[in-house]
Write a structure and sequence with these properties.
The chain is mainly α and 218 residues long. It has one domain. The chain is built from 10 helices and no strands.
């Protein structure tokens, strides 16, 4: 007995939910793994006063905070993009898989960044290039979704510009940070704070177009 259109739509909806849940789980694991080096510091130095640990391992703590905030920013962008989807295909799933790969990889260049001397920009550039890769893959996802209307929910009436512009802004911040880092490492890294402005702008612009939550079936 063949599936009815409603059965097919429900099955595809469950598959989309699984794809989104998988992405959320990978990002949650990546965020959780960030704290493991700090746990090692605490267990390897049990008799050292906490104040001394906080002072001696400030770069590692900063690395944790920065990576956590950056991955959280990416999660917000991913959540907004995929909330408009009614379906997906293998191409989009492949792009998303490589995006998740770089998300999980991010703690490594972050650790290098905050163990590097302030006068050296090598690890900073490596860190920013990884961020640029993540931003570019996010932009590629947004462009692919925008140019394949069959994947989007019927209530999504945004223009191509509205769909792609937020990720263009994020990617532009990374390019700017790389250029500034070539001149001054600290100034280049501080420019990443512009991501907060970009995300707030994207969330406000996105709000009027927000479609109702898709109902899920048990």
């Amino acid at each position: 007995m063949s599936d009815t259109p409603d059965d097919t739509r429900e099955r595809r909806g469950r598959s989309l939910d699984r794809a989104v849940s998988f992405s959320d789980a990978v990002m949650s694991i990546a965020l959780t793994l960030l704290v493991l080096p700090l746990v090692d510091i605490a267990t390897d130095n049990p008799d050292e006063p906490i104040v001394h640990q906080l002072d001696r391992f400030t770069p590692q703590i900063l690395g944790f905070v920065v990576s956590f905030l950056v991955i959280s920013q990416f999660w917000g962008a991913h959540r907004r993009l995929w909330s408009y989807l009614a379906d997906f295909d293998e191409t989009l799933l492949t792009i998303n898989t490589f995006w998740l790969l770089l998300i999980v990889f991010l703690p490594y260049p972050t650790a290098l960044l905050f163990s590097e001397a302030d006068t050296n920009s090598g690890a900073a550039l490596f860190y920013l290039l990884v961020l640029l890769g993540i931003g570019t893959l996010m932009l590629l996802q947004a462009w692919y979704v925008a140019t394949h209307p069959r994947l989007r929910h019927v209530d999504d009436h945004r223009s191509l510009r509205d769909q792609v512009l937020p990720t263009v802004g994020t990617t532009a911040v990374f390019v700017l940070a790389i250029l500034l880092t070539l001149v001054d490492r600290t100034f280049g890294l501080l420019s990443l704070l512009l991501l907060i402005v970009v995300q707030r702008f994207s969330a406000q612009k996105d709000q009027p177009h927000r479609r109702p939550r898709r109902e899920t079936h048990p």
